[in-house]
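SAMPLE LOG
Freezer: B-3
Tube label: C17
Construct: single chain, 359 aa
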Amino acid sequence: MGFDYASKIRGLLATADSHEAAGNEGAAASFRAKALEWMDRYRIAEEDALAEDPTTAEPKLTIVDLAHETSDISGYLPLVAQAIARHCEVRLHIVRPTWGNYRMKVVGYEGDVRYFEFLWTSAYLMFATRIDPVWDSTISPETNIHRLRRAGHTRKEIAFKAGWNGDDPKARQKVQRVYVTEAKAAGEDPAAAGLGFQAKDYRSAYAQAFLDRLSRRLREARDAANASGGVVVLAGRAERVQESFYTLVPEARPSTEPSREFADPTLTCSRCIKLRADELKKPIQTQRPPAEVTCRDHNWTKPRRWTDADEARWQRQQNGSSARAGRASGRQAADGVVLRGTASPTANRVEAANQALES
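STRUCTURE (predicted):
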């Protein structure tokens, strides 16, 4: 490939960023769409070059560092990254060098890695501003309140971040008034409103629905590629990426040591053995299952029974109004992630990724 696609793409993305910083979102979106088109051309040209000479390029390692404040839903970020990696046919190894920081080691062919970086940036931007935002001192308090309340943070928590007394009901009411006003001004239905709003249920459903809808959109993009025939994929390409992954990221190679199975400590505990022997002396209709008969030290091994409280909590988390509102917001956020330009992944990649998602 004689043309420097990477420089062209970087230039378009830099121009998009400058327009976005200036508040010109329309121009920024236009340049990002153009960058996606060039990424597609890059990947097709790369595939053609490899078809002529497989030594033209080798899988490369790119490191993507991310600093994100740890929260109750920040654990969804690696899952989002893995879904995108499967779509782009790259291999991904994620570690957390420090609390609140992620380091992603991405291995794949240049075009695929560039596409992963683009999709990840788009998805993370949506996650960080809509689903799991933090208080940003560079924007107005009203915008911050709108972002945090829309993401399901409690009014008390937001009031303290705004510098007010969150224990004061008037401060919490003020937070809600600002949120509703800002939401209506943005043309949104205030989701985090109404009596009985459960912030934890809303946030969990929000993040899960974002991941589910994004994964579905990626799969639909692959299905569309499969229907249109895609392009020819080289035999052994996935295997070369896999082996390069283990060479460039050796710590990710599966261990060859035999796994150690769980050893039930109650089977060798003299007190547990005695209690179970005593249990067998009772009438058979009153005997408990052996797994439920343990000494005090091994109560943690007992199987947990599903209680009425568990059922009520599950129903609330699945069917409650807060959870339903969270899922609707998550789907809407995922639909806002820009996925691709004009070309498609290869047909062979479609099937491999579908199998990965289904497993």
